[in-house]
């Protein structure tokens, strides 16, 4: 009996590696699908970061337009059209 268990020991150890490989093969499609979902969806943190970046760009554009309008009005104070600034609204 003891000699039979010694002979079966390498077989048991070898099948342990096969089971691990089989498990990896079975899990692979689910892992790939999970990564594909992660790549195609946007997390809330990422959406907030992108929105903040967009708003900062729009606010910078608004500041440049206000500065140009103030300069036009300073150069031509009698011209009503030069001093009229309708404004830029960030987010639209």
Characteristic terms for this protein:
92 residues; mainly alpha; 3 helices; 82% helix
Topology, element by element:
Layout: H1 2-40, H2 44-75, H3 80-83
Tell me about this structure.
82% of the residues lie in helices and 0% in strands. The protein has 92 residues and is an all-alpha fold. The radius of gyration is 34 Å and the shape is rod-shaped. It starts with a helix and ends in a 9-residue tail after the last helix.
What general outline do the C-alpha atoms trace?
rod-shaped
Q: Would you tell me the overall average pLDDT?
A: 76
Element-level helix/strand string = HHH
Largest sheet data: none
The percentage of residues in β strands lies in under 5%
- Low-confidence blocks of residues: none
Please give the radius of gyration in angstroms: 34 Å
Number of helices: 3
Structural class label? mainly alpha
* Number of extended strands: 0
Residues in helices, as a percent range? over 70%
Alpha carbon gap, first and last residue: 83 Å
Short description, anyone?
The protein is mostly helical and 92 residues long. Helices cover 82% and strands 0% of the residues. The model has no long low-confidence stretch (mean pLDDT 76).
